[in-house]
Dihydrofolate reductase (Lichenibacterium ramalinae), 180 residues
Amino acid sequence: MTLPVVIIAAVARNGAIGLADGLPWRLPGDLAHFKAETMGKPVVMGRRTFASLGRPLPGRSLVVVSRDRALALPAGTVAAASLDEALERAEAIAVASGAREVMVAGGAEIYRAAMARADVLRLTEVDLAPQADALFPPIDPAIWRETSRVPGTRGPRDEAGFTFVEHARAPERARASDPA
Ligand SMILES: NC(=O)c1ccc[n+]([C@@H]2O[C@H](COP(=O)([O-])OP(=O)(O)OC[C@H]3O[C@@H](n4cnc5c(N)ncnc54)[C@H](OP(=O)(O)O)[C@@H]3O)[C@@H](O)[C@H]2O)c1
């Protein structure tokens, strides 16, 4: 991989990211942020997260990770049998389309696997601690450095406040795909 791999996620104070195959909050302001951050870029996601969306995302090429090699997907969406294959496919799409980042959009199983492969964590810290069955993995302070923190603008339909926080991999902690 030569392009940056960016994990994008909304994470509550207790690490919650999902409940019953959906999001445990209603935050249109963060959905708008997700759309802006992913537009025009390839987006890698797990089969369960794709199923929860139920449709392709306009303006973005989705690479769906599944062990099911017979998985049927809509046009414009590609399948990958492993995270490695998904990142390779996503990078090829990015190079062909001029995108500068490969985005990884969850869910919990994919985030856990992608932490070692990511360069950037582009997180929305959600000011809630809801019940959840899907959690974001721990962020190791020996590996990740906070590089920006910007308060989000809470709209009338947002259930809670939120903050956009970015972490970058410490330069001495090369990602897993890089040669030693
Ligand atoms: N808050 C957020 O930002 C955010 C973002 C995304 C998702 N979510 C939430 O997260 C939850 C879903 O997370 P999840 O962990 O249940 O599911 P997931 O990570 O979306 O998808 C898991 C599926 O991906 C495939 N997979 C995972 N690792 C693989 C590997 N190494 N090789 C091949 N295939 C692999 C498998 O598909 P098969 O079973 O088909 O083999 C597996 O069942 C939902 O509640 C969703 O709403 C939250």
User: Anything to note?
Assistant: The longest strand covers residues 5-12. Residues 9-10, 17-19, 21-23, 45-49, 52, 65-68, 81-83, 105-110, 113, 134 surround NAP (CB under 6 Å).
